Fold this protein.
Amino acid sequence: MATSEQLVLAGTRTPSADGKTFTVYEPATGAELAEVAYASVEDVDRAVAAAVTAQESWADQAPSARAAVLHRWADLVEARAEELAVLQTRENGLTIRESRGMLWATSALLRYSADAVDKIVGETIPNDAGGLLMTQREPLGVVAAITAWNAPIAMAAQKAGPALVTGNTVVLKPSELAPLTSLIFGDLASEAGLPEGCLSILPGDGSVGRALVENRAVARVTFTGSTATGQDIALRAASTFKRLTLELGGKSAAIVFADADLDRVCAVAPEAMFGLAGQDCCARSRLLIHESVYDQVIEGYARTSARLKVGDPLDETTDLGPLISVAQRDRVHGFVEESVADGAVVVTGGAKPAGLPEGGGWYVPTVLTGVRPDMRVAQEEVFGPVVSVIPFATEEEAIRLANDTQYGLSGSIWTGNIARAIRVSRKVKSGVLAVNSNTSNYLQAPFGGVKQSGIGRANGLAGLEANTELKTLFMDGT
Ligand code: NDP
């Protein structure tokens, strides 16, 4: 039975000004999940105006008081974590195990921001004028947060936590494909004591995002989504010089050298490709293998991949849920068909699995060999469970191939040689990188991309500082 959801406007559930709604569908079945209020431009203006009004007194609260609200918010998220994990799985198709991990990250991100409230500091600067020359960090004002559907509630925490704790107020637009957990996240903020006006959650399509980006009272936009949308936001934001953080797409490489622990690579590296059914900005969607161990690694990697279970995302034993929609699955399959027509070979996968509901966007883990680096499948973000395998002969060639896309988000270097790990990690152009590990995204450390993968950094203290402006202050001492 589909539920009915209103906006969270200035902290209170409210219908949209023009009464419009849209339908959210469950990716696993295609069934209707909820009817959601569709924010209008008038709602955007009201939410931003409320955020402007609320900002000064919120920023004037003691830092410890702001931090306390975030800790209470995290408590409430934890108390409802299982319910929210199930809801996220139903709205975006991630497996229940993945959703639980993201709920853990949601409260951890809030607590990190809360605990960092007194770590965002200015400095005193030696000067010849006989006074005190210093910098202080001030909030920017109203922050617009625009999120993608693949990790909606964790992204909401990643953006709202640092912005709020540093004294800003926030208007958040979740993806129209998966807005439900973000709305409850907004309810919990009010329940935790966040003052009226400090946070609005406005579902709707790209027009809501555009209205936020174009609103003159918004000081900063923090966005997670595709490179094309990021470019549109940067252009529109330029007219008012909004501060921007853009977390965009990726085409990251896992580079496997012959001296790596190959058994471990074959056992664990597929997880960094097929987690979130490949709908991960950091997915290692290119697998570069040294030619001397090429056959051995493909055989082991494909064996692990073929064992992954595709199916009901609420089943604890499922490894890959459905893609976000049947249309996305068909787009992914189109990449595979095109590359096969161009000479690529499907080692495993390349099809939708049998026996699952027709309305779901199912696709099996797919390993493609015979991929030339210039093929579309090796250059563009597929955002589905498809890895392109490419051999290399030398370290220099591996680095050149790794850098041979417009993106620069993440990657993994697998080697037993520490000097090689240091050399190669210096040369791979990416915002984050892992050596002998799948994981390069930690909430305590800066996260973001270079090249067309974005600008700015989330997470860590850098993620809080991005919500502040440096003011220089001189106090005469003579
Ligand atoms: P989109 O760029 O399509 O959408 C992202 C958000 O922007 C959605 O809320 C969307 O609304 C909104 N939007 C769409 N058009 C505009 C516009 N012109 N102005 C303002 N907002 C707009 O990305 P997806 O949702 O499809 O997400 C997948 C992408 O996100 C992939 O490229 C992936 O790599 C990237 N991503 C990056 C991450 C990172 O940290 N680097 C992490 C996760 C994902 P709506 O969808 O409702 O229309």
Q: What stands out?
A: The radius of gyration is 23 Å. Residues 317 and 462 are 37 Å apart (CA to CA).
